[in-house]
């Protein structure tokens, strides 16, 4: 059996079975999702993290590329109670270390008690606990990655749905899931996917009906260019955001954000709509949240478990954001209409309606 060790920031070194070789370091987080491991592993929001699955068997329906959310695996390493051969081989091909035969209940409990923590992982024929501890020490010395957007964003603008005749969306790619783009294109939108650090001039040249800030990894404070775009366009152009996008929009409009203890990651997060009183189930993957929305936004939806903001609406601007993932691949389909509401803002905004002659 290939050796595998996981060194936790709290001092424990766990021994498991190696399923894909290599060494890695990163922030250890967990997801409660019981399906959708392909989508989770290819979600850019997991960049630079080590992902632990709380569900005990990962890989029981194979690996199919058409379910991927991006073109590669983003977590630096993967931990599970048991990984199938299909997933293990996929991770090995992607050079992502993987460990199973661990008590993931203990791992999740450690994270819930102590918060998301740094860890080091070593997998291979001759690795020792000291190799994992070395990775952990190296991880402790790393500062927050302020340029993480460069690792997950497109390098050049890409257009999807060129033949569509609906609204034009400028999607600022901070690590966008592919299903966000497809959800907009399926609704007849033309989507211009832009680098996370795009200039005001680039967006202005597109002249979008909606400015959309995507999900992505890391601290929203690191996405200053995206914040600046919202500040520049919000008075004249409807603005939408998902996950990190909600946090970026809040920061741009005078709000603040903060890091959560262990975040929300899974496909069963209940969200209450404050106006209708309806509770919907949502898919989520974030470690930061909006602490204060600021004077230009109001909280429209909250998480049932901890009251954190899950939806923001503009009080004087056309703004609509969600902390969860309405595209929900995989997961519940309770909130697909978010995209209809976003595109409707583009249809009815003053700039989209011709003035009377």
Please describe the topology of this protein.
Blueprint lengths: L2 E6 L4 E8 L1 E10 L5 H5 L7 E5 L3 E2 L18 E3 L2 E2 L1 H9 L4 E3 L3 H11 L2 E8 L4 H12 L8 H4 L5 E3 L7 E6 L4 H8 L4 E6 L4 H7 L3 E4 L10 H10 L5 E4 L1 H9 L3 E18 L5 E14 L4 E7 L5 E6 L4 E4 L14 H12 L9
Parallel strand pairs: 3-4, 4-6, 5-7, 6-8, 11-12, 11-13, 13-14, 14-19
Antiparallel strand pairs: 1-2, 1-9, 2-8, 3-9, 10-12, 15-16, 15-17, 17-18, 18-19
Description:
- The chain has 357 residues and is of the alpha/beta class.
- The protein folds into two domains: 3-140, Carbamoyl-phosphate synthase small subunit, N-terminal domain (Glucose Oxidase, domain 1, 3-Layer(bba) Sandwich), CATH 3.50.30; 149-348, 3-Layer(aba) Sandwich (Rossmann fold).
- 24% of the residues lie in helices and 33% in strands.
- It contains ten helices and 19 strands.
- The strands form three sheets. The protein has a ten-stranded mixed sheet with strand order 10-12-11-13-14-19-18-17-15-16, with helices on both faces.
- A hairpin with a 5-residue loop joins strand 15 (256-273) and strand 16 (279-292).
- It is globular, with a radius of gyration of 21 Å.
């Amino acid at each position: 059996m290939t050796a595998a060790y996981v060194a936790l920031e709290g001092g424990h070194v766990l021994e498991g079975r190696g399923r894909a070789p290599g060494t890695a370091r990163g922030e250890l987080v967990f997801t409660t999702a019981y399906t959708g491991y392909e989508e989770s592993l290819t979600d850019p929001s997991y960049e630079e993290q080590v992902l632990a699955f709380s569900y005990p068997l990962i890989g029981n329906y194979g690996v199919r590329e058409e379910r991927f959310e991006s073109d590669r695996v983003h977590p630096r390493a993967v931990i599970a109670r048991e990984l199938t051969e299909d997933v293990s081989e996929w991770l090995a091909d992607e050079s992502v270390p993987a460990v199973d035969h661990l008590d993931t209940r203990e791992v999740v409990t450690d994270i819930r008690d102590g918060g998301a923590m740094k860890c080091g992982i070593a997998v291979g024929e001759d690795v020792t606990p000291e190799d994992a501890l070395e990775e952990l020490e190296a991880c402790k010395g790393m500062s927050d990655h302020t340029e993480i957007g460069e690792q997950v964003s497109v390098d050049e603008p890409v257009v999807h749905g060129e033949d569509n005749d609906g609204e034009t969306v400028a999607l600022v790619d901070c690590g966008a899931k592919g299903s966000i783009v497809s959800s907009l294109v399926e609704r007849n939108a033309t989507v211009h996917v832009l680098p996370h650090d795009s200039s005001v001039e680039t967006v202005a040249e597109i002249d979008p009906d909606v400015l959309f800030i995507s999900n992505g990894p890391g601290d929203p404070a690191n996405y200053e260019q995206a914040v600046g775009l919202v500040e520049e366009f919000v008075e004249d152009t409807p603005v939408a955001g998902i996950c990190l996008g909600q946090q970026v929009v809040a920061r741009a409009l005078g709000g603040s954000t903060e890091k959560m203890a262990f975040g929300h990651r899974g496909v069963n997060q209940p969200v209450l709509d404050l106006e209708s009183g309806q509770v919907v189930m949502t898919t989520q993957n974030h470690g930061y949240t909006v602490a204060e929305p600021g004077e230009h936004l109001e909280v429209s939806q909250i998480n049932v478990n901890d009251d954190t903001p899950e939806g923001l609406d503009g009080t004087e601007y056309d703004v609509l954001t969600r902390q969860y993932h309405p595209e929900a691949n995989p997961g519940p389909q309770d909130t697909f209409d978010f995209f209809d509401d976003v595109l409707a803002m583009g249809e009815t905004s003053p700039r989209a309606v011709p003035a009377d002659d």
